[in-house]
Amino acid sequence: MTATDAAPGSATAGTSLTDLRMVWRMRAFEEKVRELRLAGDAVGSIHLGIGQEGVATGASGLAGPQDAVFATYRGHSWAISCGVPVEALFGEILGRDTGINGGRGGSAHLTAPAYRFFGENSIVGAGAPIACGAALAGRHDGSDRVALTVFGDGAMNQGAVHEAMNFASAFSLPVVFLCENNSWSELTPIDEMVRDPELFRRAAAYGMPGERIDGNDPQEVRERLGDAFEVAREGGGPTLVEAMTQRLVGHYIGDADQYRRPGERERDAEREPVALLTRRLRESGVSDDEIAAAESDARAEMEAAAAAALAAPLADPATAKEHLYA
């Protein structure tokens, strides 16, 4: 039985299966990147979003061609969400000339404006003020642009994020501030760094709406983030959305990840997006074979894309200064 044939809850099953396929594409990509980094094929610091894929999956398709998406250095899934070809992403991370930026950006600085993905930034919280600039430009160029800026819970304590939220609210800019709260600000739990760990409450101080949602549920993300996009596009100004999620791996590849609290891994394994969507699909009557195909198809796609990227020539160092000067 296919998802579209399922009688009970067929619409929900079809949506959930599509979401599971996207989640698995993102996870299989990240797991392949980890393999390539540990093998020495990729170099440099790499931060994986394994476990956080539900947020980027739910946001997929919300940004229109005129909009702009800004991610953190944990942004591979956001590039995939925007439709960037995975072979070009592998090429970039592997330093190939077929990379989306010709091998110049690597894992933490890749960008793809043609896909409305204006990239990652290794300065914590730096995407927020840049998103304000994109939104302000949209007001003057008539593009009806909405800017989505994604950052972690630790970035909520950065001055640039405070300034961006205040500026966006004061001028009613069409910005959606999306906090991916995985509860860990690098290696420190957020609830030990702030008095009130319900970060969405800060929105009230800026005069904007704010809410906390389940970031592991793509359907909820799609609905609630879609509302924020609609408010922004209709001139209602910015919104702060706090999406609760978790990373199932260390802060970076090589992080010993020994700081976890008792029982945390077990709780995370129950609520992460693959587990959540798998339960939902089984309850809707979708077969285990179809559920398993979401994973196997994604892994096959990533194996082929990574192999193609590895076969491509390395970026030519002589081109390093290209695009630096007008």
Automatic annotation (TrEMBL):
The entry's keywords: Oxidoreductase, Pyruvate, Thiamine pyrophosphate
Coiled-coil ranges from the UniProt annotation: none
Pfam families: E1_dh
PANTHER family per UniProt: PYRUVATE DEHYDROGENASE E1 COMPONENT SUBUNIT ALPHA, PYRUVATE DEHYDROGENASE E1 COMPONENT, ALPHA SUBUNIT BACTERIAL AND ORGANELLAR
Protein name: Pyruvate dehydrogenase (Acetyl-transferring)
Domain Dehydrogenase E1 component intervals: 25-316
Biological process according to GO: pyruvate decarboxylation to acetyl-CoA
Domain of life of the organism encoding this protein: Bacteria
The protein's required cofactors: thiamine diphosphate
Organism: Pseudonocardia dioxanivorans (strain ATCC 55486 / DSM 44775 / JCM 13855 / CB1190)
